[in-house]
Write a structure and sequence with these properties.
Layout (H helix, E strand, L loop, with lengths): L8 H9 L5 E6 L4 H16 L5 E6 L4 H6 L7 E6 L2 E7 L4 H8 L7
Parallel strand pairs: 1-2
Antiparallel strand pairs: 1-3, 3-4
Length: about 110
Amino acid sequence: MANIPEINEEDFQSQVLDAAGPILVDFGATWCNPCKMLDPIVDELAADWAANVKFVKVDVDSNPMVAMNYQVMGVPTLLLFKGGQVQERLVGYKPKDQIVAKLSPHLELA
């Protein structure tokens, strides 16, 4: 099981926008049942893609400014960043195969 760090608004610039490679940001909330359903899938992807993609979590209740800045209107929302820019957005619970299909064209996976 991957140990995905949770970051806050202060860390967002250095951890996400200034990141060298692709980074997947998992926006969620502790009260969100679809987020809890998505967590094991995100953990699997983090383990599968550990060599290629960095993963972080953002709690929208604790970090409302980051959520607003990136128009996160519902949770869970997955945003894939490359070079400080959003490359892909997935909103709501999705099965692993749909997430992989949507994100893998943006990634150089071994």
